[in-house]
Automatic annotation (TrEMBL):
It is found in: Membrane. It comes from Sphingomonas immobilis. It is a multi-pass membrane protein. The keyword Membrane applies. This is Amino acid permease.
Length: 507
């Protein structure tokens, strides 16, 4: 039965209450956690990808993607406040729609977190190489800093940063936790400088033609730009470590999204209005896809003199409008701050794997904790290997789109779960209630389907192929070993032993 093997919500909450993690996170910390996880490669790098797909019309793309994320955030807020336990969309689905749906959501979250970490690693690489060139006039062959789909052979800097973050997570995240707020401040300062310097010199003529590739281009860019907003759901994985989650979780989720949306709109306007954001076309006026050898060749023909060709879009824009030193600073800020996003994405991945392993859906050794460092070293190393390989061989645009496909599936599942639970358990206490829940959830689901449909055929094919592999793994291994299926849910429903979130308490 598709919706069988529901993991009792009361059992989840009761066990979590008995074996809960230390609650130390407040609303400010959650908001900063969300901003830290959201602001990253999406705005620092994917602005160029969006410009190639939509031109100045990417302004609408940011609005569309932000709207879909906002209605999904409202659904997340109700679930995370009502079910303040670890596991995010996976746990919510398990409690409401059953084990198979929960497994598919957890399987899709691998696309969200692990591949997103790879995408951010590639984004970091672009800024690092640009910074080396600007600061020391060091030219590294393209074959060593781009993957085969992007005109190179292997992206060594992206591999390096992914490996460093993996090692840090294996050893322990306390050291990283103490600087998380500082890194968030650096990113916000860098974006603020960009806005302050570019907004006053905007030229309205740069906004025409507004949609050179039509609304289809705007939709395609929205599906990619969605990556710039994901990460706010990582806040929900911290529910069990949150003080007064009924109040603080919604504030953290919606607050972080609101802050990021304001920055994104201002930054996009700054890029378009100063240096322009028209796509680069191939022979015969053919539209070229981001992250392809054809686009790399076309950019080489114009000496990379377009924002869509840049691997460090914001720094390139500032240098082009006469602020080379500030551009250097923005590049340095990206280099310093983006690893925190990689860390949060990889941490979120290990958290999902850890909970799935404790439920019996993945091998038990995945949830082993290192005796000295008290981290889930096995699954962290495995995740790190895959993230490193993703970063080495694939362009940021493709990785972002594939990550988005998994995220959209998870968001839609949470939106469905909110409505289902309103009908199946209407009397349960809901500290935060999604307003106009049926309309909001419907908009979220429709929005997720619309953005998924707007992804290119390669990305959609990869998603369905990944889902098919997930079904094979579930029926070949996970179903027979599930703790719920074996009647062991009470013994394994808690989150005892999960390493704490890498954010220091603020009293």
């Amino acid at each position: 039965m598709i919706f069988g093997r529901v993991k009792s919500l009361d059992a989840i909450l009761a066990t979590a209450e008995k074996k809960s993690l230390h609650r130390s996170l407040g609303a400010f910390q959650l908001t900063m956690l969300g901003v830290g996880a959201v602001i990253g490669t999406g705005i620092f790098v994917l602005t160029a990808q969006a410009a190639q797909k939509a031109g100045p019309g990417m302004m609408l793309s940011f609005i569309i993607a932000g709207f879909v994320c906002a209605v999904a955030a409202l659904c997340y807020a109700e679930m995370s406040a009502m079910v303040p336990v670890s596991g995010s969309a996976y746990t919510y689905s398990y409690a409401v729609m059953g084990e198979l749906v929960a497994w598919m959501v957890g399987w899709a979250l691998i696309l969200e977190y692990a591949i997103a970490a790879g995408a951010v690693s590639v984004g970091w690489s672009g800024y690092f190489i640009g910074w080396l060139n600007t600061s020391f006039q060091i030219q590294i062959p393209l074959a060593l800093v781009r993957g085969p789909f992007d005109g190179g052979f292997i992206n060594l800097p992206a591999m390096l940063i992914a490996a460093i973050v993996t090692a840090l997570l294996v050893k322990g995240t306390k050291e990283s936790a103490t600087v998380n707020a500082v890194l968030v401040a650096i990113k916000i300062l860098a974006l603020s400088l960009f806005v302050i310097l570019t907004i006053p010199v905007i030229k309205t003529g740069q906004f025409t033609p507004f949609a050179p590739l039509g609304f289809a281009g705007i939709s395609g860019a929205a599906a990619s730009i969605f990556f710039a907003y994901v990460g706010f759901d990582a806040v929900s994985t911290a529910a069990e470590e949150t003080k007064n989650p009924q109040r603080n979780m919604p504030i953290g989720l919606i607050g972080s999204l609101a802050i990021c949306t304001v920055f994104y709109m201002l930054v996009a306007a700054g890029v378009i209005g100063t240096v322009g954001a028209q796509p680069v076309f191939g022979p015969g006026g053919a539209a070229l896809s981001p992250g392809t050898p054809e686009l790399s060749q076309a950019c080489a023909a114009i000496h990379e003199n377009a924002v869509v060709c840049s691997k460090e879009a914001l720094a390139w824009t500032l240098k082009s409008v006469g602020y080379p030193f500030i551009g250097w600073l923005v590049g340095a800020a990206a280099i310093i701050a983006l690893p925190s996003v990689i860390l949060m994405m990889m941490f979120g991945q290990t958290r999902i794997f850890f909970v799935m392993s404790r439920d019996g859906l993945l091998p038990e050794f995945f949830s082993r904790v290192h005796p000295r460092w008290h981290t889930p070293h096995v699954i962290t190393l495995l995740t790190g290997v895959f993230v490193t390989l993703f970063a080495a061989f694939f362009p940021v645009g493709l990785l972002a789109d594939v990550s988005n496909s998994g995220t959209l599936f998870a968001f839609a599942a949470v939106s469905i779960a909110v409505v289902v639970l309103r009908h199946t358990d209407p009397n349960r206490a809901r500290p935060f209630r999604t307003p106009l829940v049926h309309g909001i959830a419907a908009l979220s689901i429709i929005g997720c389907i619309y953005l998924f449909y707007s992804l290119d055929i390669v990305t959609k094919s990869l998603f369905f192929g990944w889902a098919a592999i997930g079904l094979v793994v579930y029926y070949a291994y996970s179903r027979s070993r599930s703790h719920v299926g074996r009647g062991l849910s009470e013994e394994h429903g808690g989150d005892a032993g999960i390493p704490p979130l890498p954010v220091p308490p603020i009293d």
